Amino acid sequence: MTIENPSIVYFKDRFIEESECRISLRDRSFRFGDGIFETMLVVNGRIYDMPPHLERLKKGLSAFRLGLDISGLKEICEQVIRRNTLTQGYVRILVSRGVDEEGVVGYLTRGSVPYCVVQAFARPYPGFKPLNLWLSSYKVSFHTPSKTNNALLYTLAMLEASDNKCDNALLLDTEGNICETASGNIFWIKDSVLYTPDTALPFVPGTMRDKVIQLWDGEIKEGRFTLDDLKSAEEVFMTNIGTILAPVSAIGPSGLVLPAGARTKALRRMLDKEIKRAVYI
User: Fold this and answer.
1) Which pairing describes strands 115-122 and 8-11: parallel, antiparallel, or unpaired?
2) The CATH number of the domain where 87 resides is what?
3) Contact at 8 Å (CB) between 199 and 193?
4) What is the pLDDT of residue 163?
5) 19 secondary structure, DSSP code
6) What is the pTM of this model?
């Protein structure tokens, strides 16, 4: 398996070399981050668990009033995989609102035609690597049904974490409730109970989050929790499509240090097994 990036993308109704892909300086996604995206895992040349990604994409299209027909998107993604002979990695769908008609100035859109880009990139299957989190000074406040192209909050949180020699950031809302990490969902285990923030809070529930909830054989509590709740945890882990499931070994600057516990390791093994044996769509 080669890990070099494939180069064929789907762009505005055609398949072209990535180097030929051009967007206008007036494109609203470039100017304002006006769009949404999904990233899906590819294993053995097939997309893992595509339906929930497409469902989340549909919710985002509806919520942000992006009138894009995605009825043929499954086939398009499969073609991008085949054209790039991708066996292991990811497929990403990016949607932009497009370019406004001449004379439009400012945020109010008029005459734009949404479009999507589908790209594939090769990556090795994620290993089981402990992560250090940094408690971010940036707060989340906006609840969205899907991932958006405007990710400045998460970029700043990740830069802050990097400045403090951490791998990722822990994000709270303005009331001090634990919400998510800068690039994934968070869980913790205490007294054989699995805890995770309630989806009414301002974060995007991930597809791996749903898988963990399905696989957990025990009590689950979703709710509003603070750092005090997290400090009493026995094991903490985060999930996303890029890490699958990764244990959290420390949270700065609280001084909290955690082991990669047995239940976290067992959940990761269950996820790996489920991914490898799943029917790919």
Assistant:
1) antiparallel
2) 3.30.470.10
3) no
4) 98
5) G
6) 0.91
Domain encompassing residue 63: 8-122
pLDDT in tens, 24-82: 999 999 999 999 999 999 999 999 999 999 999 999 999 999 999 999 999 999 999 99
Q: Are residues 82 and 219 in the same domain?
A: no
Amino acid at 33: G
* 28 and 50 within one domain: yes
SS (H, E, C) 252-276: ECCCEECCCCHHHHHHHHHHHHHHH
Domain identity same for 177 and 74 = no
Residue 111 tokens, joined: 């005459």
Widest Cα–Cα separation across the chain:
61
1 in any annotated domain: no
Q: How far is 214 from 9, CA to CA, in rounded Å? A: 34
* 212, 167 contact by CB (below 8 A): no
Q: Given 73, 91, 122, which residue is the final one in a domain?
A: 122
Low-confidence ranges of the chain (pLDDT < 50): 1-3, 279-281
